[in-house]
Amino acid sequence: MVTGCVSKKQYAALDAQYKDLGQLYHKTQMELTESRAKVKSLEDMLDYERKNNAALKEAYAKLQASLDKSIAQNSQGNVNISKLVDEINASNRYIQHLVNTKNKSDSLNMVLTNRLTRSLSREEMKDVDVQVLKGVVYISLSDNMLYKSGSYEISERAGETLSKIAKIIQDYKDYEVLVEGNTDTDPISKPNIRNNWDLSVLRASSVVQALQNDYGVDPKRLTAGGRGEYNPIADNSTASGKARNRRTQIIITPKLDQFMELIDKAPETEQHSVDF
Q1: What are the phi and psi torsion angles at 69 (to 5°)?
Q2: Residue 98 phi/psi, 5° resolution?
Q3: Residue 276 belongs to a domain
Q4: N or C: which terminus of the chain has fewer CB atoms within 10 Å of its end residue's CB?
């Protein structure tokens, strides 16, 4: 009977080992879930790039068809073929320039996103979602992390996270920053806040002012806006859906005036660079 029993010390050790294994299993499950989410995001980005490349190929094919048609219609010499070749070459260079510029922009967005996600802790990532959609970086922050309960004032908890985001914004000075507030459908009942439009704008304004006053972001790059309850990403009929809809997005995009300058800039002409 004595040799068949386990001592209290042995039982405590086994019990501690069992709890450690349980915690390790829970941690592993969380890491697996995070990895699957990152893989899904990368798959979505790859699908977007494939579609974009297909569109560029289609545009090039139409351009080539236009060239072939022009050559066939003007075989009698009524059109200056040399000039036509120069125009086609210029168009091809312009298309390639746009493709290269877009690829550079996409690469910068990926670097920006990776730097931000690596700087955030696992606990912060529970309240922050970072995505790249159609060439734009979206950083979505939950209201539970950002604001004091039922308020538009920034909480102390949000300070460290905003400082990391501000550091990335400071490093990418050629990008504009739009801060956009969103709410659920529950009506607000606070003095001096008429409705969810007011609340969403006030929350966005609080984040903009924190980026400017606390972290030194140039206010000329910042815009505050609110969409109230009218831009939901989940069903407002459930508590979890409402929690997802109560968010503030920091949207980082290339400056519009630089993009328009790129569109307006005509490529230089080269003579006779297409062979027939």
Answers
A1: -65, -40
A2: -65, -40
A3: no
A4: N
Residue carrying the six token digits 């908890």: 157
Q: How far apart are CA 179 and CA 138, in angstroms?
A: 10
Strand pairing partners for 181?
Answer: 226, 248
Give SS3 for 253.
Answer: strand
What pLDDT does residue 114 have? 85
Q: How far apart are CA 97 and CA 262, in angstroms?
A: 9
Q: Is the pLDDT of residue 273 over 50?
A: no
Residues 157 and 203 in one domain: yes
State how far the Cα of 120 lies from the Cα of 77, in Å rounded to an integer: 66
Kindly state whether residues 254 and 207 are assigned to the same domain: yes
Q: Which domain holds residue 46?
A: 8-68
Residues 191 and 106 grouped into a single domain: yes
**What's the pLDDT tens digit per position in 166-186?**
999 998 888 899 999 999 999
Please check whether residues 94 and 165 belong to one and the same domain.
Answer: yes
Question: What span, in angstroms and rounded, lies between the C-alpha atoms of 50 and 44?
Answer: 10
Model confidence at 243: pLDDT above 50: yes
Name the amino acid, one letter, at 106: D
Residue whose C-alpha is closest to residue 179's, from 204, 197, 147: 204
